[in-house]
Amino acid sequence: MSLSFVTNLGSLYDSTRRYLIRLLRSLAARLETPDEAVVDLAIASGQRMACARIAIDLDIYEHLVKKSPRTVAELAKVTDAEEQLLSRLLRALAAMKWIREVGLAKFAASPITYFMTKPNVRAGYIHWYDQGLPTIANMPFYFRDNSYRTPSTPTYGPLQHAFDTSLESYTYWSTIPGVYSNFNTFMQGHFSGKRLDWLSWFPLEKVVSEGFDETQSEYLFVDVGGGRGHQAQAVRTRCKDVKGKVVLEDLPGVIGDAGEIDGDIVKVKQDFFEKNQIQGARCYYLAHILHNWPNPSCVTILSKLRGAMIPGYSRLLICDLILPDTGVSQREAALDWGMLTLHSGMQRSKRQWTQLVEEAGLTVVKFWTPPGEGDGIVECVRDE
Question: What's the rounded Cα separation, in Å, for the pair 142 and 344?
Fold first, then answer.
């Protein structure tokens, strides 16, 4: 394989690139001996995570982006870290390809180095390491103590067991100012780089706008738990010629922070565990919410929306990851266990989405999948 092919992988379609990654990982797994695989997982994986976290505390990524290359002695001076320890840390990061080793005791920035200087990415890593890793370490004991059962409540899951709290994760984090502030920074941009905008591929006009009937309701689109209103704003712009109202719903503290959106968008203070105040809308939209909750909580959320929907008219669009029923990738499995770790939640397959939606008294009309990998749309209706 030529070097030019490898260096041009970034220009490939994302789906092709991800396919090649899975193919190469499968090949590596076949070539690796069992003892190599076990040692890498048991010993090396945790060490790599720790090295990356220590580098955040020492501002290694920022220092190398500001000036590259730098010697170990230079970095020891600006970080006030012991030179011997720093040398060991930097060579480990270079082995991970998070920085580049360019000479004897000399290091420079890599693409990952630049990525790690983004505030939301930095915050995301801190959040996962500080909140997720202790939970993962404790997880075998949680499941042993709970007879190896999936959590059924958000107030007693792996995180609660690890941190000895009876509070749901978001509430628990809000009691610790530094953690909550860091989490909010993380949520401003998420962790995984660019996320394909669902409006770039989903036929909103065909599914939602064309069927709008103002005699049924004045409301076109309700963004449930929509945060600061970015999606509500995008839909309002996309459907500017449709008379129906666009609504942004979220908790009072969040709605109060959603200032920079179109004045035509209706802001409603709404807890999605309570009866929805907007009845009979053409479309209700849930984005990246249900994966944070165990099934019983999701059934409650969906049931409240079912109560607001007009049978045969209203649509519910769930924007979330749709796992394949077989052949889940390492990344998809990791995202699923990540939700279990932090929220007692889960990522769901088509079969699991269907079961969940039907338990709430709704019916799946269609699974809409994006080009390549990413979040899909589960379109649902209330039949009666």
Answer: 12
| Alpha helices for the chain (secondary structure H) | 3-7, 14-31, 34-39, 45-57, 60-66, 72-79, 83-95, 111-115, 119-127, 133-145, 158-163, 169-174, 177-187, 204-207, 230-238, 252-255, 295-308, 330-343, 350-359
Q: Is 186 exposed, middle or buried (0-12, 13-18, 19+ CB in 10 A)?
A: buried
Look up residue 230 and give its two tokens: 């970015």
Instruction: Tell which residue, 113, 51, 58, has the closest CA to residue 88.
Output: 51
The CA distance from 367 to 380, in Å, is 9
Give the C-alpha separation, 359 to 381, whole Å. Answer: 13
Two tokens, residue 135: 């939970």
- Measured CA to CA, the distance from residue 345 to residue 295 in angstroms comes to 8
Beta strand 219-224 pairing with 106-109? unpaired
Could you tell me what percent of the chain has a pLDDT over 70?
A: 93
**Spatial separation of the C-alpha atoms in residues 145 and 136, rounded to whole Å:** 15
Instruction: List pLDDT tens digits, range 362-372.
Output: 999 999 999 87
| Long-range CB contacts for residues 84-93, cutoff 8 Å, separation at least 24 | 86/58, 89/51, 89/54, 89/55, 89/58, 89/60, 90/60, 92/47, 92/48, 92/51, 93/51, 93/52, 93/55, 93/60
Rounded Cα distance between 147 and 365, Å, is: 36
Alpha-carbon Rg for the chain, nearest whole angstrom, is: 23
The pTM score is: 0.86
Q: Which residues form the catalytic set?
A: 291
CB neighbour class for 298 (10 Å; exposed up to 12, middle 13-18, buried from 19): buried
Q: Where residue 253 falls among pLDDT bands split at 50, 70, 90? A: confident
Q: Tokens 């920085």 sit at which residue?
A: 99
- Lowest-pLDDT range of 16-20, 44-48, 89-93, 106-110: 16-20
